[in-house]
């Protein structure tokens, strides 16, 4: 399993939305190539509208453990 890491936390909601869409495109590409992938941004961003916090303070509890369960980490570098 690949863990796709990328920036997300940002005060501007438009930047968070852009990062979410870039992560989705990358996850789709990896899935189409037959790779199993997990992205916390792709998983969590849709839940923000239900009150899920967007800051690292909340996400750190969960996101520190996930990469340890994966075989590979890919870092998606994004502007902003």
Provide an overview of this structure.
With 80 residues, the protein is an alpha/beta fold. It has a single domain (2-75), classed as Hypothetical protein PA1492 (Rossmann fold). It has three helices and three strands; from the N terminus they run E-H-E-H-H-E. Strands 2-1-3 form a three-stranded parallel beta sheet. Strand 1, helix 1 (13-32) and strand 2 form a beta-alpha-beta unit.
Short characterization:
With 80 residues, the chain is α/β, with parallel strands linked by helices. 41% of the residues lie in helices and 12% in strands.
Low-confidence stretches: none
Counting H and I runs of at least 4 residues, what is the number of helices? 3
- Bin the helical content: 40-55%
Q: Radius of gyration, Cα only, in angstroms? A: 12 Å
Order of helices and strands: EHEHHE
The backbone outline, from C-alpha atoms, is globular
Q: How many runs of DSSP E, i.e. beta strands?
A: 3
In CATH, the homologous superfamily goes by the name Hypothetical protein PA1492
CATH architecture: 3-Layer(aba) Sandwich
Q: What is the SS-derived class?
A: alpha/beta
Instruction: State the domain count.
Output: 1
* Overall mean confidence score, pLDDT: 90
Give the class-level CATH name: Alpha Beta
Name the strands of the widest sheet in spatial order.
2-1-3
* CATH fold name: Rossmann fold
């Amino acid at each position: 399993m690949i863990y796709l890491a990328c920036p997300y936390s940002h005060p501007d909601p438009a930047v968070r939305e852009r990062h979410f869409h870039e992560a989705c495109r990358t996850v789709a590409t990896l899935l189409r190539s037959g790779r199993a992938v997990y992205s916390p941004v792709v998983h969590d961003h849709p839940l923000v509208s239900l009150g899920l916090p967007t800051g690292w303070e909340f996400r750190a509890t969960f996101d520190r453990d996930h990469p340890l369960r994966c075989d590979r980490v890919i870092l998606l570098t994004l502007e902003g």
